[in-house]
């Protein structure tokens, strides 16, 4: 009945390593499956991954070439005269991150031509490596004397971090160690010439911490983990004469375990927390765990947008105060949403707690997903929750951090969908996909998910162990699914799903066992804590994992910023297979203010209330600005429906 | 019955000149009275002026000395070795502005010792002037070769503008021309060596434009007005290779008449508009008038805080988008509120339209008044409308623009209270004061105002012309006084006051005629246009000209950010003569959320509504942060009072 294909054991370890290699991590409760063990089989994310691999990755390499990012390496490794180095001082990292995305794409979909391209790039990169192992295309030649002199802003260690991550991804995709060995040479140089008593080190932009933890996991060399701990320790604060404003902005340079809130540059802070979580997964240091939990609570209780976006201020690309979540001014860099996603990935691995998956999902489906256009060629750096129609999707940014960050996320998506633990198999995200892997008992297992998610609520999971075996299938019940029914082989499970938890289905599973989950797809109106100044009296619409918005193009005659929702709010879904790659829109009989608000005074004793009926149509947030710039709003005023005038004659 | 003292005619013109000398300005409908013609006689502003003159002005000079601002001049004019120049490149302007404030204070209250101090400072300043007339303590010596090379940020013309304004004030206060002549030497240098075909000029920080207009009015030399026109014309945009972002930020460098909205640095933009209004008052250029009206509408319809504060963003100290009025993040620099006040002063002079006075009053009583502490020694640079308890009142700022700007405003306050026009006498602001001046017919006139404003609504104006004469007394009816009754000598006037207008009382006035105005002091709840994201569903409390706020110290057990108003809202005034210099507080039986909002989730489908009774006490906004930093809020959520539970037993 089923044609089961099980992984062949005895292959080299690199084939078995997932996005993180946590199989020997003492604090890891959950263990990733290899990216290659998961095939996306024609659902929502299949299309996003296809466009990433077929359009985004190739076109971005062309742009990186056009902007000199690869030439920056070539000119150092060649006797030929090249034009001067181009671009900001951190462009090396963009190529490394592109390689990481391209490498993961090979595990999702092998492509010998792309692999050959990466091989050539690796040669170009390594030809630029200095004899001592140092590698950076900016801090060389006339700037060679300034090596390590501008660590707060120089991005030397940041670039190394991405080099390591790209190298590990390529190693796990192909078994090829060349780039990995090159990155190790750089790390060995650090271990030799820097550190306590020698040249002090600082991650002015944290990133290397998580890369070093993964390098430790890949090689087993504890010195790499120790180096990560040194960077997180803040011991060099005095020697480097760091100012408080720098410590805040960089989120490094002072002891990580003394942090009490997220502040400063959002990507820096969240990469630091991700690296610290990796460090905890390996060391179990309780001071780290306490800080990580404090920071996580600070994030989700007061500093995260409803799209999973992070970073309130353009100035410093930074976190704001608690509850400072301005929709139009939101910075919400794609990279920051991804960094928050990675942070929560580690927290989930440490605990198996669905509250972390919930944050990952919120970011992935909304504030990350919005970052790449539907055609895979335009990128958002900022992902605000309100737009006056400014153009924010662009094909190129001189600071090109977000595009390859989105690529590496989408190219490896399957690797985030499942985990294993001692007790069984975990299903985190529901999308059409097929897992071919093994339980931690060693028994081979397949799992196949069929669903219309995120548009419809039916999910079918067919579980097929190689032999009948008792284990737990952990099925995630999202926070938004208030009423969830679960059945196994047609029989309802003993326990109903509790929102925001994993439903543990423990039984003897045999090949072809079928779990059916009916998720609650009723549209939800979210309220923000009244402490959020901009969202008071307003609602955001969510259906399944998708946050919705009003975009001007869909409103017949109603100005988006004059629109309001009428409570109690009926929202009627309509499938639109031809629209924006196929979406479900939500129709609502809402309201507008009688006359355009733009013509009303700024201050008045008169309260303007929306009272004129208006047909409103919501679209998923992630598709905004895909038909050109347009006015857009996530948080919409909501008022009780006006009672019909008694004077009005009945018809 | 009345002891009438009338001005002696035939005195030099400087004694008759007001804050602006508009007597020959073709487009000036209203003409200022001399500052010295108005005495403050023991009301609200008398105390603010007293503290300005007795505490603020003397202590600030000490601080300017301590921080080297005066030494920056001394070192250039002396053979003695001084320490190197100190402070930012624009400190000269701070001393000039201090002189302007001190000079106006002499007209309000003569003080020979202070006058002697200014004389000495003038000598110190002029000793630093270059032989060619150039005067700036930064762009000299080793930087002399960079003169005019960094006009976008160099502040050379900005400092000259303040030199001229200080010089004119001192001239009008004392008749002494020394500083005035020094500033004219600098202007003559500009006319000789710069301009079209010569060194191009740019006000990287507009200010000189208004100073030149006033210099023209003071001297009658049209070349100075023409120079202002040149600076406003933007003709040097090409020669100076100005970028669009610079044109936006500086609000200069491109033709003023092509501006369509306020943007960029708020103080720069509003000084530019003030200078352009001065230019219009002299030239009548209709293109300027059209632009001024467009900008004014942009300001009051979408970019002004309810306190009259201006400038939404810290980044660039700048305007935001339309309706971008964040309360906590508001930049609202004291200087920007003052600049808006000055802009509206010119617009009022051109029209006699009360809508401009209304904006002046809103700023003066609230967003300007808050800028100086009650004891006159601490200053706000920012005047936000919400505070988490950050310390924002400081005695010193290295960029010391706001403190002397506040001083020059308060020291000359009487000069803003009255105007004359061809038809009669205008009363703009109601405070205990006595005007001794003349009508434009030449007939001497006195006016004495007695009132408890801004705390009580009764205003008595005793008008005493030297001889009985028919003229119009224009009594301003503020926008907030919805029901105003006016009586003359006990008889109701024919016309009731219409809010936001001048009530023209035309009759034959004779000495001792008594006008009684009863202003409507009913507390008002203001709503913002729903397009303002942070104010939706909230109200601001205003009573008379004063905007109120909740400050933590006055709330018994209720956290300010958990507080809400209960509608319909009763606000009960209580005079507190001992509190904060004597204020009227407003009591309100409001509400709080059941449990602290800080413990509530960030997003939820549940709407949290305030339902627990709470006694709230509002204090005037301008006194906030005078008892130390504390949480503060102007815009407060407002909900209909919860209906009493039906299950509750009747007692």
What can you see in these coordinates?
- 2 copies of one chain form a homodimer.
- Chain A has 651 residues and is an alpha+beta fold.
- Chain A has 3 domains: 21-416, Glycosyltransferase; 419-518, Immunoglobulin-like; 524-640, no CATH class.
- The first copy, chain A, is 32% helix and 20% strand.
- Chain A has 14 helices and 25 strands.
- In chain A, the strands form 4 sheets. In chain A, strands 2-8-9-10-15-12-13 form a 7-stranded antiparallel β-sheet, with no helix packed on it. The first copy, chain A, has a 6-stranded mixed barrel with strand order 17-18-23-21-19-25. A 5-stranded mixed β-sheet of chain A has the order 1-6-7-11-14, with no helix packed on it.
- In chain A, α2 packs across α4 (112-127), α7 (208-219) runs antiparallel to α8 and α10 (266-283) packs parallel to α12 (334-351).
- The termini of chain A are far apart.
- Mean pLDDT of chain A is 95; it is low at 1-9 and 645-651.
- The interface between A and B is large, with 46 and 46 residues.
- β22 of chain A pairs antiparallel with β16 of chain B, so a sheet runs across the interface.
List key phrases describing it.
651 residues; alpha+beta; Immunoglobulin-like; 3 domains; six-stranded mixed beta barrel; 32% helix; disordered N terminus; disordered C terminus; Beta-AFase-like (chains A, B); hydrolase (chains A, B); Beta-AFase-like_GH127_cat (chains A, B)
Q: Rough shape of chain A?
A: globular
Indicate the radius of gyration of chain A in whole angstroms. Answer: 25 Å
Oligomeric composition of the shown chains: homodimer
Tell me about the largest β-sheet of chain A: 7 strands, antiparallel
Structural class of chain A: alpha+beta
- Which CATH architecture of the largest domain in chain A is right? Alpha/alpha barrel
Count, helices of chain A: 14
- The average pLDDT value of chain A, as a whole number, equals 95
Q: Largest interface, with Cβ-Cβ < 8 Å?
A: A-B, 46 and 46 residues
Find the CATH topology of the largest domain in chain A.
Answer: Glycosyltransferase
Given as residue ranges, the uncertain stretches of chain A (5+ residues, pLDDT < 50) are 1-9, 645-651
**Highest CATH level, the class of the largest domain in chain A:** Mainly Alpha
Number of domains of chain A: 3
**How many β-strands of chain A, per DSSP?**
25
Task: Estimate the helix proportion of chain A, in percent.
Answer: 25-40%
For the largest beta sheet of chain A, what order do the strands appear in spatially? 2-8-9-10-15-12-13
GO biological process, one term (chains A, B): carbohydrate metabolic process
Protein name (chains A, B): Glycoside hydrolase family 127 protein
Keywords (chains A, B): Hydrolase
Pfam family, one (chains A, B): Glyco_hydro127M
């Amino acid at each position: 009945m089923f044609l089961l294909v099980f992984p062949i054991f005895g292959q080299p370890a690199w084939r078995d390593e997932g996005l993180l290699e946590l199989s020997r991590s003492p604090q890891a409760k959950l263990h990733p499956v290899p990216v290659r063990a998961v095939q996306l089989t024609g659902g929502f994310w299949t299309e996003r991954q296809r466009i990433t691999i077929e359009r985004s990755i190739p076109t971005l390499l062309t742009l990186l070439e056009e902007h000199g990012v690869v030439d920056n390496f070539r000119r150092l490794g060649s006797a030929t005269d090249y034009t001067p180095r181009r671009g900001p001082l951190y462009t090396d990292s963009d190529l490394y991150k592109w390689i990481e995305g391209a490498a993961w794409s090979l595990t999702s979909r092998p492509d010998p031509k792309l692999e050959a391209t990466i091989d050539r790039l690796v040669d170009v990169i390594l030809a630029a490596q200095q004899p001592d192992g140092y590698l950076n295309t900016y801090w060389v030649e006339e700037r060679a004397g300034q090596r390590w002199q501008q660590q707060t802003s120089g991005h030397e260690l940041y670039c190394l971090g991405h080099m390591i991550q790209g190298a590990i991804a390529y190693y796990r995709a192909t078994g090829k160690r060349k780039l990995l060995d090159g990155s190790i040479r750089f790390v060995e140089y650090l271990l030799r010439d820097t550190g306590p008593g020698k040249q002090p080190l600082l991650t002015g932009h944290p990133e290397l911490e998580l890369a070093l933890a993964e390098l430790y996991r890949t090689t087993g060399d504890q010195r790499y983990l120790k180096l990560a701990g040194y960077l997180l320790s803040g011991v060099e604060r005095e020697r480097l004469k760091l100012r408080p404003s720098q410590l805040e902005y960089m989120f490094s340079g002072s002891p990580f375990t003394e942090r009490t809130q997220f502040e400063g540059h959002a990507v820096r802070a969240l990469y630091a927390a991700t690296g610290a979580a990796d460090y905890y997964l390996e060391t179990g240091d309780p001071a780290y765990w306490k800080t990580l939990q404090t920071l996580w609570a600070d994030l989700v209780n007061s500093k995260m947008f409803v799209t999973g976006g992070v970073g309130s201020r353009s100035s410093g690309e930074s976190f704001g105060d608690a509850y400072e979540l301005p929709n139009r001014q939101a910075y919400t860099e794609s990279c920051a949403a991804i960094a928050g996603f990675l942070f929560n990935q580690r927290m989930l691995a440490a605990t198996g707690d669905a509250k972390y998956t919930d944050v990952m999902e919120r970011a992935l489906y909304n504030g990350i997903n919005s970052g790449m256009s539907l055609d895979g060629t335009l990128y958002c750096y900022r992902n605000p929750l309100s737009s006056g129609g400014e153009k924010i999707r662009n094909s190129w940014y001189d600071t090109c951090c977000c595009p390859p960050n989105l690529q590496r996320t989408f190219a490896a998506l399957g690797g985030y969908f499942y985990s294993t633990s001692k007790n069984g198999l975990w299903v985190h995200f529901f999308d059409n996909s097929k897992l071919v892997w093994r339980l931690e008992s060693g028994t081979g297992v397949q799992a196949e998910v069929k669903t219309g998610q995120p548009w419809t609520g039916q999910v079918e999971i067919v579980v097929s162990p190689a032999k009948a075996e008792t284990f737990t299938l952990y099925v995630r019940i999202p926070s938004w699914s208030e009423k969830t029914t679960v059945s196994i082989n047609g029989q309802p499970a003993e326990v109903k799903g509790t929102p925001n938890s994993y439903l543990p289905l423990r039984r003897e599973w045999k090949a072809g066992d079928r779990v059916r989950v009916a998720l609650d797809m009723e549209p939800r109106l979210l309220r923000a804590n009244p402490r959020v100044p901009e969202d008071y009296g307003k609602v955001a619409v969510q259906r399944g994992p998708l946050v919705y918005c009003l975009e001007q193009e869909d409103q017949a005659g109603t100005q988006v910023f004059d629109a309001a929702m009428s409570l109690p709010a009926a929202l009627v879904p309509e499938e639109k297979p031809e629209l924006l790659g196929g979406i479900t829109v939500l129709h609502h009989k809402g309201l507008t203010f009688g006359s355009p608000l733009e013509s009303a005074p700024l201050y008045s004793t008169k309260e303007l209330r929306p009272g004129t009926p208006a047909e409103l149509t919501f679209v998923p947030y992630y598709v905004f600005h895909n038909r050109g710039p347009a006015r857009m709003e996530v948080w919409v005023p909501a008022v009780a429906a006006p009672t019909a005038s008694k004077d009005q004659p009945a018809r």
